[in-house]
Amino acid sequence: AKMQVPEPQIFVERTLALIKPDAVDKEEEIEDLILRSGFLIVQKRKLQLSPEQCSNFYADQYGKMFFPNLTAYMSSGPLVAMDLARHDAVSYWKELLGPSDSLKAKRTHPHSLRAIYGTDDLRNALHGSLSISSAEREIRFMFPEAILEPIPAGQRARDYLNLYVKPTLLAGLTALCKEKPADPMTWLADWLIEHNPNKPRLQH
């Protein structure tokens, strides 16, 4: 019997990064570092959490001495949540962050992000998921409408195509028949890019 060679699969790991309220003014600088470290910023939002939302987010820290201070600090102003993707995202982002105590980070990992942007053991400028499972939970928390599941197949894929892809494609093909361009494939590709319903609108 012939050996079945498995299809190559690419699993890109995701992690949640937060720019905490005390470092939000350094957002552009930090994002630049993130991109230069080979991460893709899959989605990003700026939000302000209530103390209650903070305590839900940090539910696993509940009952620790610093918990009230943590929730007060995390709800003290807007923060930036980012869903980051790259190979080994979780451990790589943790490595970039350095120790959670910024004072310790300044001594032992002077080039880490918390050494550069953090203040002390509580105000450490940035957050990173500790594991793949906590990354999933935290990304869902910050981006409740996000799709983290594998790409749909079967009936779900057909539903998705019918709902989101076919109407646009049909309009494009109709326009193509009216236009009759010399190079139909390129024309259609350009038309689809131009009329992508999910495209952010730019004001000219």
Automatic annotation (TrEMBL):
A GO CC term attached to the entry: cilium
InterPro entries assigned to the protein according to its UniProt record, in alphabetical order: Dpy-30_motif, NDK-like_dom, NDK-like_dom_sf, NDK_H5, Nucleoside_diP_kinase
Pfam families: Dpy-30, NDK
Subcellular location: Cytoplasm, Cytoskeleton, Flagellum axoneme
One of the GO biological process terms: GTP biosynthetic process
Lineage summary: Eukaryota, Metazoa, Chordata, Craniata, Vertebrata
Gene from which the chain derives: Nme5
Superkingdom classification of source: Eukaryota
Domain Nucleoside diphosphate kinase-like: 12-150
Full protein name: Nucleoside diphosphate kinase homolog 5
